[in-house]
Fold this protein.
Amino acid sequence: MLDVKQISGGYGDIQILHQISLNIEKGEMVSVLGANGAGKTTLLLTLSGILRPTEGEIYFLNGRLDGLEPHLIVQKGVVRIPEGRKIFQEMTVLENLELGSYIRTAKRYRKENLSKVFVLFPRLEERKDQFAGTLSGGEQQMLAIGRGLMTLPQILMLDEPSLGLAPLIVMNLFEVIKGINQEGTTILLVEQNMQLALSTVQRGYVLENGRIILEGKSENLLKEDYMRKAYLGI
């Protein structure tokens, strides 16, 4: 579904990514793991068209993504949930969700998708007329994911969804993310919490200093000595 071939890039003259290659099959749940500053967010920004790769190619369903404007990438079904939520705080929950269905195909199914989001996140329906900035951190993350789902994504890219949230809220949120995947949406999960991520996804890529240093099935990565010492504290 998503095929990333040897991409490099960053911010102006500052190179962050170095020849990154990865692939995700339709229906998979895959994680990109790494410490803070490893290049994970830069990778998602590049996949979503906000940053342009300086070399390499990005394919989605056999069509080229690199070089397309971000709104065209969203129209193709590649949707990013940004780190830190990035909701519109002075708009209501409902208004934030409706903004997610701005593209033509999603607008046609707005009512139906809104009902699905409210089934996933009943708290959002309870607070649909409340200003988004007054929600708790967990509720704001629900809203950010719900807004992304309103766009009818084929692949949902989540950037650090656990960031700043209490452990119980994180566990509940990850159960919902697994449910979204089971309903047919492909998931690319970017996380610092490696234990949690690898217990959720099927495969993972480990990013360090802008380079992929390890990849494989989750259970195999958990057994890697390097992972256990460097990231899991074992």
Q: What stands out?
A: The CA atoms of residues 101 and 109 lie 8 Å apart. The chain has eleven helices and ten strands. The longest strand covers residues 14-24. Strands lie at 2-11, 14-24, 29-33, 55-60, 63-64, 78-81, 155-159, 186-191, 203-208, 211-217.
